[in-house]
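Key result, reporting period 2: structure in, sequence out.
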């Protein structure tokens, strides 16, 4: 599945994670105030995909996708939480392409959980997410008419 795969025609590019990326991801997790207890293995679990988003200066963030029905649960690891401008630019350029690929592959929504208000507000205002059930759970519908909040089946472990 080419869902979170490779695309090299823009300034921000994405590709599948490789073994050469493992030390970079591991180091960023260890120093991250929000994900320091998350291990590298989380991004490499079976039945998930992980991509690296890069700009002209190298890796910016990792996106892990896991699949529940027609939804993709996104987990994002920024290499540097303090570089908000670079992180936002990468998401603004890379995520619309990710949404198109997901839609082309039959997925109807992204789910994203965050407790960080700045990231949450950015996702809502600039990427088209909305709150779903709880203030921390965000959903982005990928189809013109998405399922209603009552019909979107979200596993308990996501909430």
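The corresponding designed sequence is given below.
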């Amino acid at each position: 599945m080419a869902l979170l795969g490779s695309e090299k025609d823009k300034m921000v590019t994405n590709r599948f994670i490789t073994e050469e990326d493992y030390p970079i991801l591991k180091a960023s997790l260890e120093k991250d105030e929000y994900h320091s207890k998350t291990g590298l293995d989380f991004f490499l679990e079976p039945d998930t995909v992980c991509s690296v988003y890069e700009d002209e200066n190298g890796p910016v963030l990792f996106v892990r996708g896991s699949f529940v029905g027609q939804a993709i649960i996104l987990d994002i690891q920024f290499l540097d939480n303090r570089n908000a401008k670079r992180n936002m630019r990468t998401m603004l350029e890379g995520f619309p392409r990710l949404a198109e690929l997901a839609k082309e592959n039959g997925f109807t929504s992204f789910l994203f959980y965050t407790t960080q208000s700045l990231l949450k507000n950015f996702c809502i205002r600039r990427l088209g997410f909305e709150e779903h059930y709880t203030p921390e759970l965000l959903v982005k519908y990928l189809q013109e008419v998405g399922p209603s909040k009552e019909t979107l089946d979200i596993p308990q472990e996501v909430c």
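The domain at 13-141 is CATH 3.40.630.30 (Aminopeptidase). The chain has one domain: 13-141. This case is discussed further under Risks and Mitigation.
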